[in-house]
Amino acid sequence: MHLNTLEDVIRFLCGRDTDDTTLDARKGRAPDWSDLQWVLRKARPSASYPTSPIPCRHCGLTASTATTSSSNINGNAGRPYFRCPTMGKFLVFADARGNDPTNPVCRCGLSSKRMMSGFYNAKTPGKLFYVCRSGMCEYYRECRDARGEHVVVDWELVDHLAWLEII
Predict the structure, then answer these.
(1) Where does the pLDDT of residue 64 fall: very low under 50, low under 70, confident under 90, or very high at 90 and above?
(2) Domain span at residue 7?
(3) Given CA atoms 115, 52, 49, 132 in this order, what sign does their dihedral have?
(4) What pTM was estimated for this model as a whole?
(5) Strand intervals (E) in the chain
(6) In this structure, are residues 134 and 56 in contact, taking their beta carbons and an 8 Å threshold?
(7) Domain contains 93
(8) What value, to the nearest 5°, has the Cα angle with vertex 130 and ends 83 and 154?
(9) Which terminus of the chain is less hemmed in, N or C, by CB atoms within 10 Å?
């Protein structure tokens, strides 16, 4: 499934077509991104995320905090994250993006974080996947649609989906 349009995103997130009652706020007009923001905030609040350094799952020491570079070209510019203090390995982003309580449950028993592969040096650019939202386990699961196909985001939608904290 390729997420090319707002309607594709609504179908993916809500499991409904845009002519359903999912976006009652639109009152007979075509849905827009602010309508989807309203639906997501009202119907599906974000799950919690680590706001202070966590113990590293690799070495057990307290993770260090970092921020992605402003030149990050994968839609993650300026995002806070935690990393292993000894190996420097990325652990988890320290923000609400992708933390949907309806995401699959990870090994920690929490709903996972939805993320997207980069558009450069990735086997499948824009592919959605799930990881542990607390950064405490090695959970990874590809995001697939009802037919078992990878869910892939078009580059043009990345900023919208990041703004809505979907990815």
Answers:
(1) very high
(2) 2-43
(3) positive
(4) 0.79
(5) 2-3, 64-67, 80-83, 90-93, 113-116, 128-131, 140-142, 152-153
(6) no
(7) no
(8) 105
(9) N
